[in-house]
Amino acid sequence: MSAIPSTASEIAAAVTAKRITARAVIDDYLSRIDARESEIHAFNLVMAQDARAQADAIDADIAAGRPVGPLAGVPIAIKDNMCTHGVETTCSSKILEGWKPPYDATVITRLRTAGAVIIGKTNMDEFAMGSSTENSAFGSTRNPCDISRVPGGSSGGSAAAVAAGFSPVSLGSDTGGSIRQPAALCGVVGVKPTYGVVSRYGLVAYASSLDQIGPFATTVADAALLTEVIGGHDPMDSTSIPLASPSLLPSVSQGVAGMRIGRVTDLPAGAEPEVAARLDQAFAALEAAGATIVDITLPSLSYALTAYYLIAPAEASSNLARFDGVRFGLRVNAADTNSMYGATRAAGFGDEVKRRIMLGTYALSAGYYDAYYGKALKVRRLIAQDFERAYEQVDAILTPTSPVVAFKFGDKVDDPMSMYLCDIYTIPTNLAGHPAMSVPFGTGAHGLPVGIQVLAPALGEQAMFRVGGALEVAAGGAQ
Amino acid sequence: MSDSPLSSIVATEDQMLEGGWELIVGLEVHVELATRTKLFSGSPNRFGDEPNVNIDPVTLGLPGALPMLNRQAVELAMRIGVALNCTIQPCIFHRKNYFYPDMPKAYQISQYDIPLNIDGFLELPSGTTIGVERAHLEEDTGKSTHVGGATGRIHGSDYSLIDFNRAGVPLVEIVSRPDIRTSEHAREYVSELRAILEVIGASDAKMEEGSMRVDANVSVHKPGTPFGTRCEIKNVNSIRALGRAIDYEARRQIDVLDTGGVIRQETRHWDDAEGRTHTLRVKEDADDYRYFPEPDLVPVAPDDAWVQAVRDNLPMLPAARRSALSALTGYDTRSEAIIVVVERAQHDYVQAVADAGGDAVRALIYVQQAFADAGPTPAVPAKDLAALTILERDGKLSATQAKTVLSELVENGGGDAAAIAAAKGFEAMDNSAVEAMVDEAIAADPDAWAKYCAGEEKAAGAIVGRVMKASKGKADGKVVSAIMQSRRGS
Amino acid sequence: MTQSGSPISASDVAKVARLARLDIDDAQVAHFTEQLAKVMGHFSDIDALDLDGVGPMTQPYPLINIMREDVELPCLDTDEVLAAAPASDERRFRVPPIIGLDD
Question: Residue C32: inside a domain, yes or no?
Fold first, then answer.
């Protein structure tokens, strides 16, 4: 038996070729979790026993000569907002504590079919609302690069799990940057696919028209492999694009020669100087690799934050109404049903969730719809039109993922607006529904990781992965 | 739902309520569609199962569940639209947000400002046209049972139990314009609508089982003044109750207004046993449903081919059936016989009797009178009934005799009318025998005869009765009348 | 939006909390009002935009007529579902008396 490889594709190849057993892989990763999870708190639940059983089943299949999938024996951590049949799914909220869904999310089914081994459910900002994982009802996750700092959020547990080596890959969800921002802060690759490429069936909704599931990985190739496995049409999701999953792995090593890469000249300010410097380096590297850098403008981009913080809370206020203490989850008893609702939801939701529910309720309420929600939907259109014009000139766009590197616990948690500004570069893509990814690209202040964001037009995943692959190569050379 | 524009329909003189008040009624009718599965998920749409068996993540509104629209529900909703002369348009779904324990997601997926069917109308059998504002798709709620307390009602109960089998069942809400001016028209509207829904296979439309639910918006005003404040009447569980509830509510509002009171906009509950409505809740500003476009569903835009196919495949509607029967029999489309027979969907049967050589008018009347419980396809073969109509038409049987034979046919599910008549000893009497009997009767009751001759038509009854008794019912009433008229010289 | 110049008042916050069925006390109302006012103060930036003739965008990817056939799919297990409920009785979900609610 050889040493345990560190990437998903290597693990699957080794397991499939019987150079190593899936059981040995999972035991190795579980021991890493044992060693450091108490420090990091990436997981709400480590499914040790279940994971070993899954691994044994894969090994049995291989021994019997049955075909196995492209992720055979690959451990994967799942953000705790994706339904796993019979396994606690909490969204890091007291209101769902102990809830065991009676069904699997589509992505879970696809991972199982591909031979992946689900190792645990990861911590997150409650209901995916936050940018630091400090809004978890079950305690914060620490950034493996510096445990005095946040891992970003809301998929902070999934980012930290990969950064800490607890699993080679993980799944997160991204509504306004919740995959890309923690990927940047933890120094891993994170991908938000085109809205509709990955099924949302079984993903506990935060903002339905913005949410999208995507992978974290240590390499761009692993992220491409994961996207291939979980992508593709799902008849259980009406907003799922009726296309087969795109072929992405070949793009990763294709290079960027001849590509036109956009530099946004009117990008909202606020990036730390070290972050801005890394972005300049990234452009230079791509140019050196044969791409042409084209200056573009996205004039409506500065309004994205406002549009997002009206649209997402509005949808959330409705999506989270089902947590009412009637059919599942927490109930605080009261004399009548209406009182029970108020008491249950007051006790079950944290402050950030309450803020967004109230904000969204207000934006939709009689007399305010046109001024807030209706207007935000129009701004959303403007932003999409800006991108449309830009993509007539370029194949992809580069921006920082986060304006800042990982910050200290408590720095922003009491000032919602400063926390919201963490997502200023990631939000516009969610509004447009386009794909975007964060690729680690050197370090910034305090030697902390910096992520560069690659944006591409709808269904432009291949172009995005070409650029991502080239940045990965350049980052390796730069360090 | 939304306020309708003022209706241009004005009550006729005889439709006005006393005191110069005019009744204004608009109806909101919810019908459950006859699909196999629910509107947004694959659980069965089935009535009467054990509680909470037809459930899935979507039905229960579990976290992560997503709706998937049922094509057949759209198809049936389009049939309703076409049958009600609506414009079918590209549409979207909205969320209507409110908390209630039988509403699993705490929002109902419905249609708001861009519904599937708009701007239609329904022509009542009596000839009045009632506007249909819209007919939109939405999902049904679960069912609550209130336990404890004295009445089994919501107030005073100890707790409630929820069954979600019905949650997610497809509904079409058909909203009339406020064009209805009498409770009779309201009944007629619902009755005609029910007939249409059955004919097109959209719903079994049973008010008693709740697959058709009617809410009435009722107000009164003096013509020439703005409409009055309306009250919404719920819990009307039969067509008869609808008429009673509207009449009661109109009376109540007029009494309030006549004594200087004001009508509050409120929802009122019809109590059929007490025969009155009472306040359920007062409409307040708190009704803030925060409608917004449902992000989990995409727009539906039926293409021309689909709409045309629905149009082409629509069966003959009740109005067309009445016209056909009218053409066949010469009766007015508004005659009771035609309305009743079409309501029972027995028009094809009447046509079949005529096609079998029968007398169409007699077929219509026989069916109306003797086939109330026979359903759309009576057991009596059309040719058997046809034979009976001919025997009567040709004077071989009197009307009374024919009726007796008809009862026998119905009882036996058919038979040879001539043989039955023969077995009963029915034979046509020749007119000279009848004439003799008439003369005998006149002689026996000269007073009645004198009155009859003086123009008192009612007095004829005594003479006719004597003839019938003497002939043991074999004499044809019409023949008797004709002989009496000729004797009187008129 | 409101006359005071603040984009959201304490009574607005109390009203939306009621609509959203979140029991919050007066101190929390004050706290949330301050935070939400600050956030919403930022939103006035879009007032400067000319949005005439711009259509609302409710979904990112333009799909249309996505429907399923009217075919039964397996149902959930009633026992499993009721076991996860806060309270059940007679194979139904049990809730406290329904008062203070519409209808």
Answer: yes
% of chain B residues with pLDDT over 90: 70
On whether residue C9 sits in a domain, the answer given is: yes
Determine the Cα–Cα distance for residues B442 and B188; give it in Å rounded to an integer: 48
Q: A79 in helix, strand or coil?
A: strand
Count up the domains in chain A and report the number.
Answer: 1
Looking at CA atoms only, how far is residue C4 from chain A in angstroms?
Answer: 16
Rounded Cα–Cα distance for residues B199 and B194 (Å): 9
B482 touches chain A (CB under 8 A): no
B322-346 per-position pLDDT tens digit = 999 999 999 999 899 998 999 888 9
Does residue C57 belong to any structural domain of this protein?
no
Inter-chain CB pairs, A–B, below 8 Å: 103
Considering the domain boundaries, does residue C82 fall inside one? Answer: no
Catalytic positions of A: 79, 154, 178
Low-confidence ranges of chain A (pLDDT < 50): 478-479
Query: Quick check: is A165 in a domain?
Result: yes
CATH architecture of B431-488: Orthogonal Bundle (1.10)
Is B154 an 8 Å CB contact of chain A?
A: no
Please give the mean pLDDT across all residues of chain C. Answer: 90
* A355 close contact with C: CB closer than 8 A: yes
Structural domain boundaries enclosing C22 = 1-47
Check: CB of residue B389 under 8 Å from CB of residue B401. no
For chain B, which residues make up each domain, given as ranges? 13-310, 316-423, 431-488
- Rounded Cα–Cα distance for residues A267 and A270 (Å): 9
Q: Which of C21, C75, C92 sits opposite B162 (nearest CB)?
A: C92
Beta strands in B140-195 (DSSP E): 143-147, 159-163, 170-176
Q: Is A270 a domain residue? A: no
pLDDT value at residue B280: 82
d(CA A165, CA A39): 13
Query: What is the model's pLDDT at position B432?
Result: 75
Tell me which DSSP letter residue A19 carries.
S
Q: A414-418, B298-302, B413-417 — which one is most confidently predicted on average? A: B298-302
Dist. CA A276–CA B229, nearest whole Å: 65
CATH code of the domain in which A13 resides: 3.90.1300.10
Q: Does B158 touch chain A (CB under 8 A)?
A: no
Which pLDDT belongs to residue A401?
Answer: 98
Q: Mean of the per-residue pLDDT values for chain B?
A: 91
Closest-CA distance, C18 to chain B, in angstroms, reads: 10
ipTM of the complex, rounded to two decimals: 0.96
Contact list in B for residue A345 (CB cut-off 8 A) is none
Q: Is the pLDDT of residue B156 over 80?
A: no
pTM (2 decimals)? 0.90
Residues of chain C with Cβ-Cβ distance to A337 below 8 Å are 95-101
DSSP code for C20? T
- The pair of structure tokens assigned to A145 is 């690069």
Counted domains in chain C: 1
Residue C34 confidence (pLDDT): 94
pLDDT band at residue B400 under the 50/70/90 scheme: confident
Best residue in C72, C78, C94 for a mutation probing chain B (most B CBs within 10 Å): C72
The answer to whether the beta carbons of residues B25 and B218 sit under 8 Å apart is yes
Residue A375 falls within a domain, yes or no? no
Residue A167 domain-assigned (yes or no): yes
- Predicted pLDDT of residue C103: 41
Domain housing A100: 8-252
CA-to-CA distance for A356 and C37, rounded, in angstroms? 13
A13: Cβ–Cβ under 8 A, 6 or more apart, which residues?
A: none
Contact C21 A196 (CB under 8 A): no
Decide if B157 touches C, using CB distance below 8 A.
yes
CB contact under 8 A, B50 and C91: yes
Task: Return d(Cα A73, Cα A59) in angstroms, integer.
Answer: 8
Residue range A250-304, pLDDT digits in tens:
999 999 999 999 999 999 989 999 999 999 999 999 999 999 999 999 999 999 9
The answer to whether residue B422 scores a pLDDT higher than 90 is no
